[in-house]
Structure formats: C-alpha cells, structure tokens
Amino acid sequence: MLEKIGQLLIKEKFIDNNVLEAALIESENQGIRLGEYLVNDKKLSEEALFFTLADQFSIPFLRNIEDNIGEIVKLLFV
User: 1, 3, 9, 72: most buried, per Cβ within 10 A?
Assistant: First the structure.
C-alpha cells in the first residue's frame, strides 16, 4: 500500500501537520487534489510535489529532463 502523500510531505519536511490538516479541508472543499491545493496556495513548490510523488511511487525524480535523457531512455526501454 502506498504511503499517503500528506504523510510523505511531512516526512520530507516540506510541510508540517498544521499545514496538512488545513490543506486537506480546503482541497476537499475546492474539489481538488491535495498537492494541487498546496502548490496553488504557495505552501509547496511544484518541484517538491513532483519529488514527493516520485518517492511515493518509487520512481526516480529527474529535475532537468534534458540533462537526464539517457536515464529516461533506460527507464523506458531497458
């Protein structure tokens, strides 16, 4: 079972529990995903969200695609 994104964000120290609790309520009220809410509300950078999502799904996080094209090819074709 995947660890919840909110708990991973806390574990990585991108947000604290107070931010998570408020964001869970607001994201549900707005009908959007937690990560989307946090980025829109400037509580989290897109890069931090993508890093955490990659961690959640146990896939590599590649910051700059152009610099990592060889790694991407290996992931797709090897």
Answer: 9
Give the number of residues written for the chain: 78
Residues 6+ apart with CB under 8 A from 65: 72
Does pTM top 0.85 for this prediction? no
**Per-residue model confidence as pLDDT tens digits over 44-62:** 999 999 999 999 999 888 7
CA distance 55 to 3: 10
Residues 26 and 2: their CA atoms lie apart, in Å, by: 23
Tokens of 46: 């897109």
Nearest residue to 16 via CA among 54, 44, 53:
44
Q: Please provide residue 29's backbone torsions phi and psi, each rounded to the nearest 5 degrees.
A: -60, -35
